[in-house]
Specification:
Elements lengths: L23 E2 L21 E6 L5 E4 H5 L4 E8 L4 E12 H8 L7 E6 L4 E5 L9 E6 L2 E2 L9 E3 L12 E7 L28
């Protein structure tokens, strides 16, 4: 069956081309969704580390990561629970900048991103390089709220938002894929919204 890309919904409105299949525009809202209890992390105790298959394992304090070259993302985000939010703005540092300090080994192909709460998710290395991912601590030019992952979270906006680890603590580089919390509970290993990769087998 072939569909016209200009197909209009039941209300007669054209579907926004920024909206992946199965998603809806949530507007100004941004739900707080978490797999674990919200931690109370002081920036004085916060750290971010990159280890595993790297030539130079690195750990940054809050002040040290803040001193790196700043980077920002302006665009859209998509949650596996079917909402999308358009035109958001985040500020922080590019993961490319962080990896340049850690020097990934040629054998590194995947990453486990983990939080200060113990939450994990898996990502191909290619999904967090070349301007695709950030560690962010600002939302709309204000400090990122703790409910949304503050003081800092991973941001991988081209994938479903469960891949954007809240309260991020680091990246562990591997030569193989290692499923994280939601992936071992039935969620897709990659999570591309445009392919509707919500669950294993999608």
């Amino acid at each position: 069956m072939k569909f016209n890309r200009d197909f209009k919904g039941r209300g007669g409105e054209a579907r926004d081309p920024r909206l992946p299949p199965g998603q809806y525009d949530i507007g100004s809202d941004w739900p707080v969704l978490s797999a674990e209890a919200t931690p109370n992390l002081a920036t004085s105790e916060w750290t971010f580390a990159i280890g595993g298959l790297v030539g130079n394992p690195v750990t940054w304090t809050w002040d040290e990561i803040q001193a790196l070259e700043p980077a920002s993302y302006e665009g859209d985000i998509h949650c596996v629970t079917t909402w999308s939010k358009f035109g958001v703005s985040f500020g922080g540092v590019s993961v490319d900048t962080l990896l340049a300090c850690a020097v990934p080994l040629p054998s590194a192909s995947h990453v486990v991103a983990y939080s200060h709460t113990g939450y994990t998710t898996n990502l191909p290395l290619g999904d967090i390089t070349d301007g695709k991912a950030w560690v962010v601590w600002e939302y709309e030019r204000r400090p990122l709220e703790v409910g949304h992952g503050g003081p800092a979270r991973l941001l991988v906006p081209h994938l479903y938002f469960w891949k954007s680890v809240k309260w991020v603590a680091g990246l562990r580089l591997l030569d193989h894929d290692e499923p994280g919390f939601w992936e071992v509970n039935g969620y897709h290993d990659r999570g591309d919204p445009w392919l509707e990769q919500r669950y294993q087998g999608d």
